[in-house]
Structures are given as structure tokens and as C-alpha cells.
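To close the chapter, one final illustration. This time we ask the reader to focus less on the individual chains and more on the assembly as a whole: which components sit near each other, and how the overall shape emerges from the parts.
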Amino acid sequence: MLDPLTAARAQMEVSLGFHMIFSAVGIALPALMCVAEGLHLRTGHAEYMNLARTWAKATSLLFAVGAVSGTALSFELGLLWPRFMEMAGATIGGAFALEGYAFFLEAIFIGLYLYGWDRLSPRAHAAAGVVVAISGTASGVLVCAANAWMQAPRGFDPGAPFRSPMWLPMATHTVIASFVAVGFAVGGVYAAAMLRGRRDAYVRRGMTIGLAVAAIAAVAQLASGDVSARAVAENQPAKLAAMEAHFHSARAVPLLVGGLVDADRDEVRFAVPLPSGLSLLVAHDPRAEVGGLDRVPRGDRPPVGLVHAAFDLMVGCGMALLGVAAWFWIARLGDARRREERDPPRLLLRALVLSSPLGFVAIEAGWIVAEAGRQPWTVDHLLRTRDAVTPAQGVPATFAAFVVLYLALGAALVVLLRRLAARGSAGARGA
Amino acid sequence: MPDVAREEIVAAIAVLAVVAYAVLGGADFGGGVWDVLSRGPRKADERAAIARAMGPVWEANHVWLIFLIVVLFTAFPAAYAALSVGLFVPFHLVLVGIVLRGGAFVFRAHQAHEGARDAPAGHAPASGADGGEAGAADAFAIDSAPARAWGVVFGGASVITPLLLGMSLGAVSCAGLVWRAPLAAAIGVLAVATCAYLAAVYLTVATSGELREAFRVKALAASAVVAVLAGVALVLTRRDAPHLWAGLTSARAAKVVAAGVGVAIASRAALVRRRFHVARALAAGEVALLLVGWALAQQPYLVYPDLTLSRAAAPAATLDFVLATLPVFVVLILPSLAYLFSVFAPRRA
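The assembled structure is written out below.
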């Protein structure tokens, strides 16, 4: 039997890990929908309308699951961490209230968008989609303020979350990550359709929109990642040291890629060192000093092995996606120069399919870096996780129930979305 | 103007959110209750009418609950913590209900819509007929095999969720947050019946002909059940929650409760006389007045007997922040909600 603290953390991880996928979709898929509908308004091409409608159907399924799993989280914050919410509710509540307004708008306009195809004028309908996209992004940005306050609290008034130095770096990184993940996932769906032999304009244009958004976001994420890393170095040195498995404070510190972390002996074995990499990353200076975990009391260190592995996974996914996006656009621009439209080579299509879930893997890994890297604190240096947990009995049982619930819901969704992906293309082929 | 404390203003806003959630979200749960209870040759048509009415608005209606929770933990964090610990089990069951209800509703709508595309000629939705997913989830498709499985989950979760939310609301008035106390259980069942009543009344406006008559009969039946259950709840209140009874019979709350009872009688009379639009407004007003009366009777307690409004309240800066954000709500959200409801309002015959 799990102890209550482990079970509570596990339930929070399952609930947030599940919800996060849908919130990322809720931020980015409406934007893709709007792009397709906007292109239809401008060009009149029927494929764009078909794409917008197919993506709207996916949004209707995914948004609802995101809304209800998000509701579950608003309760679970208190159900699992009542001492945290008692202490912090008055501080982070303001951010949640503003996020709630943004979410309210999103829920209202998604109803108008999804059910209003024939009740609104084309322009009003497209405008409703734009409101969904903007309010979805705004709610993501605002809720990040509450999390940023837990990472780097600055004061206790309701404006404090917006003064946390981690807010804008985290919010930007999270929003861009959503576009990366959704763009590549959409691109992968149409790459798979092409591999099955569909070569019509619907598939081609769907893939182009997905990969255009994905490529822009992936490049922007490089810059955002750099800003984030330096913000972490400045405000959460213990987390940075755990991300990089950096035990011994020194100058000209290498960046360790991979490796096996031995947190008891303060060692990393079999890692690939990039000379001066970490000093360059955090200070843009190859000889800069970087504080290590030796400056953090053992009882206050995050789980180094987990955080380091998750960080490498996140960065690895990001780099792989950048490479695939570059490959796609180089091939595409080559075609444009030769003034002929050819299908992407099969190897590239396979790479697009294989890499299509990596954006979501990166989101989950990045979230583990952010939250496991904050441990053992719920609120940095103010409240320990073990002091925040509920005294209620039965957390192992509710944890198990949520695992079953979300597995069942996730499985049902996958079945419906796979069918939608297949039909969306088939329907358009006939059109 | 008498001296009203900030926390009382914020609490009044929270009560309005409860009212909005009950009157709007409650009817969506009630739709699920009727989905379960539908029998006879019209059942598929009834289910399709419920799905059509809920489709565009249920997510927005659901946000009132999130809004309420956020106001609670922002403005009254101690009460939120106490409720989270004391109502650990019913709140978790509510969450399971909320997740299953929402998931099952959209999954069913999606499958019914896709099923309708495969339907034989004459059953398929006319292209673009009423647009969206559940709009096209017509009577033919809504009870097709895979859609029906989700329909069962949707209906079951629509009963369980308001039952447990009602029990939780009742528990707030029972010393020690005993959510399985008879009074709490009575409030839970009353909540389910009230949701069903609201849904049936609203659906008389959204339908016509035989279907409208069917919902009118359902509404009248539900209204009788509500009246009986409300009587039971009152008796139990007098026996088990003397502080709440004293509050209900105090001059301030009694007036509101009496008005609620009067409006309740009027809404039934309007139903009998087939004044459906009037009945809808009165039914919503009845629920709103009775909830406000309950809140006035419960005052000053948030959680009886440990937490009063002032003891549970957040610091003044936080309450001011919440109040300062209200113009955003009034300027952005309320007009948007009005637009949503006007776009999807049932067209008068």
C-alpha cells in the first residue's frame, strides 16, 4: 500500500499529466482551426473548410475532456493539498480568478464556434474561433502565474504571482510548447495519410499548416528555452543543478548529456560532457561559475536522477523535432525553387509520423523538470510537500480510481480520434 | 447604506454563482436525468431534444462551478481547506461524475453524428442542418449501439453528480460535515429532483407538439416530487439543524423563502396553463429565491459551526482584488453569455 504522501503526489501527477495534454490542445488547436478557416475565407478552397471542420470536431472532443479534467484539478488542489491551499489560496487565487475569466470566455465561444456554423455569418464564426484561440492562450499564461509563485514566491498579496520572475519565462515556454506539440501531431496525422497513399490537396494542406506552425514554434522554443534556463539558474539554483546533474560548484562547467546519476555519491557516470556548456548556457560565458548541488543541504535536494533524465528527454525531443521540421521545409523550399510540387520522400513522411508524439512527450518531461525540480518544496523554501498533504484517509484508493478513470477515458478518445483522422481524409477525398 | 463587510460582498457573489450554476448547470444535469428515465416510443426523440438543447451551452454553464471553487479558495481559503478534508469522499465522487458526464456527452454526440453520416437516406442529417455535433445527433443516431453505451454513462453520471453536490451542500449545515446525515441525503435527492424539474420546464420551451406535452407532464411530475422532498428536508432541518431552522424562520430569510414558495406555486400554475415561457422564468426564479433564502439562513456560517465568513476570509487585499476583477466579468463574460444564449435560443413557433 502506498503511503498517503506518495499516493497524493501520484494522483496529482496522473491528474495534471492527463489534463496537460488537453490544455495544450486547447491552446493550439483552435489557432490551427482559425488559420484553416481564415485561408478558406481568403481563397475559397474547400479543403481549408474541411480541415477547419475536422479540427473543430477534434477540438470538441478534446476541449470537453480538458474542461472536466481541469475542474477535477481545481478540486484536487484542496483535496490533496489542503494545507497548501489554506496558506496560498489568497495569494494564487487572483491568478486563478483571471484564468477562470479567460476560461469562461473560451467555453462560451467554443459553444458558438462548434455549434454555430449555420447560425453565424462566416466572419462572425471565424471571429468566434479567434476569441477561443486568444482566451485559451490567455488562460494558459495566467495559470502559469500561480505555478510560478510556487517556484519563486515574491510576496503574499494577490498580485504576487505576477511578480514572480518565473512567470513570463514559464508561461512563454509552456504556450510555445503547446504549439510545437499540436503542430507536429497534426503534421504526423497527414504524413500517415500520405504513407497510406492519400495525396490530395486536403492532406497536403493539412500537413503544411501543421508543420508551418510547428516549425515557427520549434525555432521560437530555442530562444524561450535559453531564457528559461537562465531564469531557473538565477531563481532556482537547486533545480538547475538537478536538471544538469551538476554536483560540484566550479568554473567552466561542462554540460552533461545523459549518464547515470548516483545521488548518494554525488556522481554522474557515462555522461557525455560538452565542454563549458553549462557555463555558456546560464551565463553566456564559457568560464562562468555555476553553483552545484553541494550548496544545497541533502534534505532539500530535488530527485536529481529523475529531473536530469526528464530534462535530457525534453531537450532531446525538441532537437529531434527541430531537425525534422528543417528537413521538411528544406525539401519543400527545394520544390518551390524548382517550381514543382512533389510529395515528400517516404523516409521524411516516416520521420514525421514517428516524431508526431514527441512534442507531447517534451511537454510531460518539461513539466516533470518544473515540478519534480521544485521538490521537496510545494512553495519554494516556504512549505514542504509533506506538510501540505491532506490528513484524509483513502488517498491510495482515490489515486487508483483516477488512474482507471483516465485510462478508460483516454482509450475511448484515442479510438474516436483515430476514426476521425481516417474519416476526415476519406471524406475530403470524395469532396 | 449599512456597513457591509468585504467578505459579505464576496460571499454574496459566491451565492450568485451557486444560483447561476443551479439554474443553468442544474438543468443540464436534469437533462441527463430525463435521458435515463426516457421510456416509450418517443424516447429517442426526447434524448435528441435534450442533447440539442445542451450541446452549445453545457460547457459554459459548467464553468460556474469552477468560478465558485476559485472564489471559495481565493476569498475563503480556510473554508475550502476544511471542505476539502471533510468532504474528501463526496467531492471525489463528484469529480468522477463530472468527468464521466462531460466525456460521455461529447463522445455520444460525436458517435451519433458520425453514425448519422452512415445512416440510410432519409435519416441522415441534411447537410449543415443545425450545424454542430449534437445538433445533428438526431433521433435515429442517438440510440445506435455505440452511442447508447455512452448515453448510459452520461445519464448515470448526471444523476450521481447533483446528488453528491447536493449532499455536500447539505453537509455544510450539519455539524461536522456529515455528508451521509439524513438532512444532507434529503438535500441531495432534492437537488436531483430540482435539476430534473428545471430541465423539463426549459425543454417545454425548446420543443413543440407531442414532445412539448411529454416534457410538460414530466415537469409537473417532477414539481410534485420537488414539493414533497422540500417538505421532508424542512422537517429534517427542524430536527437536525436547529441553527438553520432558526435562520430560515428569521424575518430576513423567511421573506425570501416565502417569495420562493409563491413563485414555485406560480410556475406550476403557468405549466398547467401551458404558459411555457412564463413557467421557465418562474422555475428559475423559484430555485434562485430558495437558494438565496438558504444562504441568508445559513449566514454567518460557511461551515457550521467552525467557520464563519469573517473567520474564513482571506486578507483584505485579496478580497479587494476579487472585487476589482468584477468589472472584467461584467464587461466581458456577461455579454458573451447573453450572446451565446441568444444565438441558440429556441425559435418561437
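The first strand of chain A starts at residue 250 and ends at 251. The CA atoms of residues 163 and 405 of chain A lie 37 Å apart. With these observations in hand, you are ready for the problems at the end of the chapter.
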